[in-house]
Amino acid sequence: MAKGKSLLLGFLAGGIISGAIALLNAPKSGKETRADLKKQATELKDSFEHVKENGKELSEQIINTSKEAAKLIKELSIDVKDSLESWQETIKPHQENIKSYLKQIEERLNELENQTKTIESK
User: Fold this and answer.
1) Where does the record place a coiled coil (predicted)?
2) Which of 26, 32, 52, 60 is 20 to 30 A away from residue 17, measured at CA?
3) pTM over 0.90
């Protein structure tokens, strides 16, 4: 226990001596140092308030932008859906024509194939 007591006394004495040396070597008086610290604390507080206000504004802007983006995406998806339905209606008659032409081509190819077989067999 004696070791712990002497160690504690050593730390206490060292703290007192280093504090006295710091006060004697300080470039400014205590009053000036306290005034500077108070000024810096006020500036830091003002900076934090400014950052806090900017953060709130940014948060509100992000929320508003997100809402607008969601609305625009919904409108865009409705427009795309309507356009696709309109396009499908527009091409529907042409699909029937294409199917008809393909059927005619297939029939003519079958006829040509049969004619070719007939010619080869002679």
Assistant:
1) 95-122
2) 32
3) no
